[in-house]
Amino acid sequence: MMFPSEREEVPVAWEAERPGSHRPGGKQAAISRGRGKSSASFFSVRVGRHAVGALVGRALAATALLGGRSRELPPRLWWSSASRRRREKGTKEESDFLDPMHHKAATGRDSINLDGWMLSREANVASFKRCARDTDIAIVEGVMGLFDGRDGKSERGSTSEMAKFLGAPVVLVLDCWALARSAAAMIHGFTTFDRDLSFAGVVFNKVGGPAHSAWLREAVEGANVGVTVLGGVPRTPGINIPERHLGLHMPDDQGISADYIARLADLMELHVDLDAILQLAATDQGLRALPPVPNSYHHHHHHHQNHVHHHDPSQNHHHNHHNHHEQPQQPQQQMITLQTHQQTVGALNSQRRSVRIGVAKDAAFCFYYHENLALLEDAGAELVFFSPLKDPLPGQLDAIYFGGGYPELHAEELSQNTRLMYAVRAFATVGGIIYAECGGLMYLSQGIQTKDGEKFALCGVLPFWTRMVQRMVMGYVKVTLHEGCMLFPPDLKELRGHVYHFSEIADDMSSIDNSLMGHDSGALHYGYSMELQYPGAMVEQEGYQIGNVLASYVHLHFGSNPACAHFFVERCRLRGKEKEEI
Questions:
Q1: Most buried residue, 146, 440, 560, 572, by CB count within 10 Å?
Q2: Among candidates 538, 555, 445, 435, which has minimal Cα distance to 500?
Q3: DSSP E strands: which ranges in 245-296?
Q4: Residue 176 is a catalytic residue
Q5: What is the reported pTM?
Q6: What's the pLDDT tens digit per position in 558-572?
């Protein structure tokens, strides 16, 4: 499928976030919020306890509106579409990591995160367009309510903003368990609240039965709200996905079977007019062409599965080794940074030494923005996946990337892989580059103390312990780089990301013993400062740096400034050349 700018359009669908969830407002595309090239693309957008949908070009976006848990609806859409041999991809609108895993389980394709606060409009559109290639259906899943964003007076960071970014007509997905004629009033309110949005239809969710569905349809059609009723999905016990301290269980934990998938697909086939939805996605009515991709994103994008190597242990070759809050503004693409460093990067690229980055990936380390990995590949990195739970360290690495996840749930097993921990510590000691986020920081610490008080020793690269706590730290953050940050140059200025964790550094940072890895370059430094985005938040020192190791509780989104992925890779190249010259 071509994109609107190429004389065809892409479909999109959005759905809603679970009740009681107040995660940062962004959007995730599982193209199947997505990637695609064919006749239609479908996205699912998660939106709090409310679900509301939208169409982008020939794409559909769905998002839930009221009450109850609608988390099972987007997978139903994906699986029912898959049963029709549609090529799907998902996207998530916000900073969530778990929903994309479910998107991938449903579609077999990687899901990306779109986010109106962390990323600029241009970056979101570029990610969407790259993600929407080679698919028939792109499902965009939003967060919270359709109009809920960073504050109470604007659409910044909301699903409605993303619908406008992508030119997406909206299909409302309304939870109706305790509603009848009131549903028409609610739909009227949503469709008239912002006249700049285009609404293509409504799907009723958690319907009590045929009579209830008929009342709802009668109410909407009688009120003449101008929205087509596309179906009503009955309330179905036993299909919700369970949750835990950081959100949903992962798909592997749930053991989603082929029978379970078929059951969800059958529900959608029986109760939703999928042909009408696909027809809506294929029409030009009310659709706006997506803007062109900015120059900074005209990198050749490699599909992750085609250009990423998984580590084979049998082939292992080891080396011996306090400000107040400001209203967040739309992030600007820092093109000047790319231009400023064009000659430097060009000179380095002319000598194109290959760069191998080991990426920790298993049940303990699974929180990565797919776009971060894609941007590293675009910058010339070869990604080598390995499991800290069971593998040795891959050989011939220039850097190691530890993402977030659940090291606390696997602390005992991680602590038993001493061969890997010794190798990681040796890699750090000889100046190897390591970048770690959240769970990765915990793994590089002296160890983890569980909520039960049990301690498990880990890598010992960082001179402090971490411990699990009851209090959750969550929110968007601005990151300001310091002079001397070993991985990202300070002229990148501001990066954006989010924090989401139930752990903390157990030691008093003022009494940290820096002698563990020597002095000077081996001493602990702060690579940047971090400011949580809520009123009265103080600037905190973050980015724990020791030698060529940078660890943080912040999950950075490299798309907030695409130059940072290039500097990551070029820093690895320079370090590799330094080693060769010794």
A1: 146
A2: 555
A3: 247-248
A4: no
A5: 0.72
A6: 999 989 999 999 999
